[in-house]
Fold this protein.
Amino acid sequence: MTAEAILHLSVLATLPILCLAFLLTVVRIVRGPTLPDRVLGLDMLVATAIGFIAVIGIKTGFTLYIDIAIALGLVGFLATIAFARFILARGKTEEDIAADSHADGSTRNKGRKG
Amino acid sequence: MIATLATLAAAVLIFVGALFTLAAAIGILRLPEFYTRMHAASKAGTVGSSLMLIAVAVHSGDPGTVTRALAGVVFFLLTAPISAHLLARAAYAVGYRLGRHAVLDEMPQESGNERS
């Protein structure tokens, strides 16, 4: 068994593992339950996609994909920072939002603050 | 000989990196709350993608590719703690509570009271 065959087998074994990791992360994004969980899942999706790019780069020999991986990492970093700023600017958790809507629904005469 | 060793090393590195990524995904799915899930995503996830980029660098002997892959690894190792820290800090400041298994909250003056 040559080294190239071992590398080919390793690539063939790696792709389903990465697919499974991708799907598990998507399950977490869909289930939530909070906004930071989904942002974290998005960050993890970017990391998994970089792994995909590396595997495809080894399999096909097109090392130009490394540039795409670097750009994708930069975009993922900036997206995570932007979502963190958004969470900070929103200023309330899902529990607060649910409590607000519940209070609005039950005591109609209370009104909104501000 | 060297090429054979490099190919074998790339095979091992890419497989171990995929296992780390899978471990991070399982941790994101199975850990009980947001602040513990962050451990899995920011540590195991970064190691997984970094190992796979190092595998590309080992597999292609081209100096340009090696430099770009190592630059990517350094970039991920620099940015992953920053983004994880920002996200955890934002979530904590807004008032997402620790899980019921947490034993210590070292910043209790900021928890609970939402700031607007």
